[in-house]
Amino acid sequence: MDKPIIMVDGNEATASVAHRLSEVIAIYPITPSSAMGEFADEWSAKGKPNLWGTIPLVIEMQSEGGAAGTVHGALQTGALTTTFTASQGLLLMIPNMYKIAGELTSAVFHVAARSIAAQGLSIFGDHQDVMAVRQTGWALLASGSVQEAHDFAAIAQMSTLKTRVPFLHFFDGFRTSHEVAKIFHLADDELRLLLDGELIRAHRARALTPERPVLRGTAQNPDVYFQARETVNPFYAATPASVQEMMDRFAQVTGRQYHLFDYVGHPEAERVVILMGSGGETAEAAVNHLVGKGEKVGVLRARLYRPFSMEHFIEALPQSVQRIAVLDRTKEPGALGEPLYLDIVNALVEGRRSKVKVIGGRYGLSSKEFTPAMVKATLDELTQAEPKNHFTVGIHDDVSNTSLEYDKNFSIEDEQTIRCVFFGLGSDGTVGANKNSIKIIGEETANYAQGYFVYDSKKSGQMTTSHLRFGPKPIQAPYLIEANQANFVACHQFNFLERFDMLKYAKEGAVFLLNSLFGADEVWDHLPSEAQKDIIAKKLKFHVINGYGVAEKAGMGQRVNTIMQTAFFAISGALPREQAIAEIKRAIEKTYGKRGEAVVKKNYEAVDRTLENLHEVKVPAAITSEAARRSPVPNEAPEFVRNVLGRMIQFEGDDIPVSALPIDGTYPLATSQWEKRNIALEIPVWDEKLCIQCGKCVIVCPHAVIRHKVYSEVALAKAPETFKHMPSKFREFSAGYAYTVQVAPEDCTGCTLCVEACPVKDKTQVGRRAINMESQPPLREAEAVNWDFFMKIPDLDRKLINPSTIKNSQLLRPLFEFSGACAGCGETPYVKLVSQLFGDRAVIANATGCSSIYGGNLPTTPWSVDANGRGPAWSNSLFEDNAEFGLGMRLTLDKQNEYAREILRALEGELGKEFVEALLNANQDDDQGIEAQRERVTELKNKLSASNDSQAKELISVADALVKKSVWIIGGDGWAYDIGYGGLDHVMASGRNVNILVLDTEVYSNTGGQASKATPRAAVAKFAMGGKNMPKKDLGLLAMSYGYVYVAKIAMGANDQQTLKAFLEAEAYDGPSIIIAYSPCIAHGYDMARSLDQTKLAVQSGHWSLYRYDPRLAGQGENPLVIESKEPSVPFSQYAYNETRYKMLTQMDEERAEELMRDAQKDAKSRWALYQQMAAMYFGNGAGAGKQGNT
Amino acid sequence: MTDLSTTYLGLNLRNPLVASASPLSQKADRAKKLEEAGISAIVMYSLFEEQIIHESLELDHYLNRGSNSFAEAVSYLPDGGMYGISPEKYLNHVAGLKKALTIPVIGSLNGVSKGGWTDYARRIEDAGADALELNMYYIPTDINITSSDIEDMQVDLVAEVKSAIKIPLAVKISPFVTSIPNFTKRLVEAGADGLVLFNRFYQPDFDLNELEILHSLDLSTSSELRLPLRWISILHGKLDVDFALTSGAHTYTDALKAMMAGAKVAMMASNLLQFGEGTIASILILLEAWMKEREYESIRQMQGSMSQKSVREPEAFERANYMKVLNNYRSLP
Hints:
- By secondary structure, chain A is of the alpha/beta class.
- Chain A contains 42 helices and 38 strands.
- In chain A, the strands form 7 sheets. In chain A, strands 1-8-18-19-17-20-21-22-23 form a 9-stranded mixed β-sheet, with helices on both faces. An 8-stranded mixed β-sheet of chain A has the order 30-29-31-32-36-35-37-38, sandwiched between helices.
- In chain A, helix 19 (561-572) packs antiparallel against helix 20, helix 27 packs across helix 37 (1056-1068) and helix 41 packs across helix 42.
- The radius of gyration of chain A is 32 Å and the shape is globular.
- In chain A, 56% of the residues are buried.
- By secondary structure, chain B is an alpha/beta fold.
- Chain B has one domain: Aldolase class I (TIM Barrel, Alpha-Beta Barrel), CATH 3.20.20.70.
- Chain B is 38% helix and 14% strand.
- Chain B is built from 12 helices and 13 strands.
- In chain B, the strands form 3 sheets. Chain B has an 8-stranded parallel barrel, surrounded by 7 helices.
- In chain B, strand 12, helix 8 and strand 13 (265-268) form a beta-alpha-beta unit.
- The longest helix of chain B is centred in the middle third of the chain and has 18 residues, at 147-164.
- Chain B starts with 5 loop residues before the first strand and ends in a 7-residue tail after the last helix.
- Chains A and B meet through helix 2, helix 15, helix 21 and helix 41 of A and helix 2 of B.
């Protein structure tokens, strides 16, 4: 018998039902729904059966469009089929959704509803995606809590079988999909009572089969299409009543009753708010509170939005209602109102309740907080003589003045509910521990419990915030814990106190727990004055623990999770201390037991050591600190950075008014330099006595924090005292030139790749390099000054630099710096190299994924500008269309270039033949040529500036296109191998001059490591839990098949010179180029500091052979393929078993691991043999014959 | 008929050739081939104390890394939660070998410190091992640790492991001990039923091009036989314990020498790796032929026949070679 009470999040709650009620599941990763697919894949991989005892088939597709097509086919052949998706993914399913509905097919999609990319992408929750499919003919069923997501997953399946109308079950992305809550679990026996076997068999009986062949999917003509479209009406008409019937049956089995429209509030309410999703929970709680205060208010929660049942709506709405505010969690620019509002207006008119006054408003876009205060403000607005229509709530709209004011101090939090807020570092395990804690409280006590977790925008050094509530009463609060409401505040990272106001959450008398290297008797003086003030004013009970000290002794490294969790239970009173410790240990065993006894042991030790290190601080009566919290950005930063981005950095972005934000999603470059995060414990220190000035440390740096520069010695006159330098050893820049390697101490992530890359070994101590790691704090101040000085030294004129050597190329200024990528990221060095070599003339199309997130996630972004203000023009369109997006850019540049040339010729008489010819025939093969052309274009504009001639004006507006531009199309393997492959293929086939950079991490990195077609055989990944059993797709081979595409397969860690050469050649090639770049990723599961060695092994094992395929060589009678790595010299397993993604399969299924490893070895050998044969092909001139490069 | 049988750790063996830890004995099907080729017992590869801990912590580290840190990725690797981390994997191997073979299977534990992990000895016993070999590997690098500190630690470990199991216990030691006789005596007193001489270690080499440390384990050669041969000869008859000779036993003559020194068994790995299972049969044929030719009736007959107490020149085992040459004279009457 299943346990009736479980603590799960909305994704797991939904997937738990969906997996049990499906036979075929087609999946594709997209935030925030990925976890549903991951659960389904994991359960099937473990052999977990569905309700009928057979294991659902789970297949990952190449896109959501592919998933929808597969679902359609599986449905047509009679399987109970589902998928999970969100946002853009749902949009890609629309064509199939029309088909599935038009064919009256029983199906369920589960959607974690999310924003749609418009002026910017957002992964967070609202109903824009769902509202974009409301016309497809699918029923839309909205759940508003984790329990409802669990329940409605079943009701949706029951209803679709009953009605033949396909159902889209949705809930709020993140707010419900990621909230951990205590729910009643639907047992298998309950589901069996709910599902009607006859209806399932009827679904199968409608399937396509040659035994009873039918034809479905005809092309229809004007004579009958219309009528045929109307045939389904009776099914839609019957659906609402059928859904209510299913809800009633559900209530009989489970005791939980739902209605198509659930009304809560005063029986004679005059003012009512109507909404869907998790906001309904908030509204319900707020309304109950206000009714308790005597207000005649109510809330109507729409559950079944499509088909919209006017009858059920009118029936549910109290007759007493005079005014209604409809809240839509979506935005439909240009419409008379948002969809739910318009439907309600219409329903009231048709339902003969048109005297009711209705206003509509928007709330909660992109997971914007929606609180009881906003519900109250909405209901209060209805008391106005002329309430504001088409309003917004939750933001400050000072442009269109749509927003309602709300009282931020209004709170309805229950006194008996305990509220706790924890601030952790991403890598310290705080969130995981809090998930454990809330599960312990929810599952081991009678308390209700809720956990919700907030992450920041960076992938390294992130802050996490955990919001936990628990208490004897049900928790109906899908919003963050508000200011002055927390009974417990914990700060797991001391320096956060210096940056953020976290004590604002604490209520009077709350407990404050701080992880501190300073003991109870010394910590006070190290607190910022603002923190001291709050602790005194709010009478906080202040405790400290040296979590890092305990962690180190217990062998936990930097992970203070178990320690802080134990401390929380010890002082919060959530559970009796002994019971709490027993439960923590039980949770440790449950969570980590399978990972081995050593893991359990160290966690136990951490628990046992915690209490003796936990101390209460005697709080002084007065503020003693003179140190104030640090400003998020320095005062010299540009105004926009200070006033807008700076507020985002400080987590005050919610308060930024509409007027302060760009209207079209356009943001300035070079902003990451202002966000000093100081996340490295150690930073590299240059030893100028050992340095050979090779530049290898510079090229591998993922964050552009280590740079080298050659400059006139004259600049040293004003050098700071500790600024290091040495005479330049560059042949071109020797006499009179100095050289420095400088580190940005506050931007470094401490990944140590620069140290690993350094080829120098101290002859007296070989472990010492020309770059060595040292503790950051003592260096920070002086090195920050040195960095500033270094940056102010003028860069060498790039016209003078021949970039064909590593050391020279690294003199070019990176125009991609200080990104939020993971420490040791294997992608960013390539991106940075593009910015150095071509950044001043690059237009970049960036596929959605890791590179678009670290490249474009607010607050600050890494793309930068040079001293002339030039830099990469960057944009992200979508995931699937990036190649086409980049091609469009190329076409514009080509067209404008052509147009400019046409006008130039037309104006030749005016401009002078020689000048025009110079412009038309400029050699722009190198920086000198490009710079000369820029000067000509400037001169051209000057000459034309005074002219009133329309052609002259036209020419000025397109003249920049006469300067060579470099179009780069950048994305990961999920894009290039899977979702975007069709477009990528077409763009390569087009022959246009674009450069494609594939950052191949061999998984969907951004969404957490799901398998792609780039995933190698034998590797474990999400959606390939049993190890991938097919070989990696050979994208380079496919590209080479065109014969006119420049192709390079590169791996910087193995051969940086070949990497550099490939970039220079790709850009120089006047046609399509594709570079496939080996990109180590944390999803591979090894120490990223070792990624250079590991990359070498990838090459030596034949997993990643290096080559360049230059079509120009064929024209010269030479074989275009130059293989630049040697025959595999180490076994594939020697490379693979350094990585957890391969090794874990040996721990899960040794025999399968061995079998796949054997096959992977064969893959490597056969790939190598094939390349050898290709390289030996005769192209005339006798060239070829196993040509081996030597870069 | 020549009797090749012997006993080791109370186990009756059909001949004195035992397979020591190598990849050949890691898989049941390969081990079966060894048995079919004539090997009389198998010592499994070692379950390393540090390996148990390392594997476990490494997996934990990489499953945790990056998890619960970023909104789009709650983790970066799937956590199946069904891992066969050592020792479970190892214990399954013991059970698998026992099921597949009729010859004795000797489990092997590698470690130096006392503590909870010695419980694995009992678990290896529970998994069906016929005996246990405790492989004590320790490279002292702390200049403050004395030889007696190390010896005490190892003797204590033997006692602790012995108390945890009922099956016989053999102890494999390194030759780098100041007084091998005294140390082995203490081990026997602590409960060792057998002594395996000697362990071979990875000896690091230098890469002069890269200025890096090289790690490789070269296969042994017959020339390495002499060290264990000497010490088994010296200790035979002085300690009530079974000796096994390992390192350098490659040929039938090596096996004969081992027996004559006083070993109950000769352990082989390098030659099996080099020449495969088939080499066992030829060694046994040659061994038996040699014995027949010289009219030896049994292996037991020759065990210890050339040990220090059995030879006319016992001092030969005590002198360095050059001393033997210088002093090779007698006073004649």
